[in-house]
Structure to design on (166 residues):
């Protein structure tokens, strides 16, 4: 299965596509980030995210896309900006005819690190280890996107095994 993870951010929106082979080994297909300039108007930032995510989806053909659930931020303005980015990311996914799976941040960290309150550096290190990457993914948004994809792969594999036993 090939899964794209997206980590929505107002400065960087990370993306990563991870594939699980028939032996459940994980492989990083592509990873990167859409860098957004603080000087650009919001509508230009959102258009850039939309275009670049659509391009990655069309080029690498994931079967499903996973995104983190909305979390509650202390700063309402920041939460609103992230909501815009998340909405545009979901629109890009829908435009490409794919479905979106969502996961709570605690679930992502638990699936990748084994601890729901893991630090960013722990997530980055574990993502690099699980994907056999030569270095830790940077910026952290890229590692987070890969972690979201890994979370979906682990979760769907567990659900498949559970249904097979039933």
């Amino acid at each position: 299965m090939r899964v794209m993870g997206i980590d929505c951010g107002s400065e960087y929106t990370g993306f990563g596509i991870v594939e699980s082979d028939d032996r459940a080994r994980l492989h990083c297909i592509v990873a990167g980030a859409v860098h957004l300039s603080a000087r650009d108007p919001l509508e230009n930032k959102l258009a850039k995210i939309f275009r670049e995510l659509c391009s990655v989806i069309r080029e690498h053909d994931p079967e499903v896309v996973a995104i983190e659930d909305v979390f509650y931020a202390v700063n309402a303005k920041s939460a609103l900006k992230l909501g815009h980015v998340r909405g545009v990311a979901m629109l890009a996914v829908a435009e490409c005819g794919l479905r979106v799976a969502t996961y709570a941040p605690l679930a992502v960290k638990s699936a990748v690190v084994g601890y729901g309150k893991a630090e960013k550096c722990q997530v980055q290190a574990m993502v690099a280890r699980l994907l056999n990457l030569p270095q830790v993914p940077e910026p952290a948004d890229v590692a987070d996107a890969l972690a979201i994809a890994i979370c979906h792969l682990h979760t769907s594999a567990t659900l498949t095994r559970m249904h097979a036993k039933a």
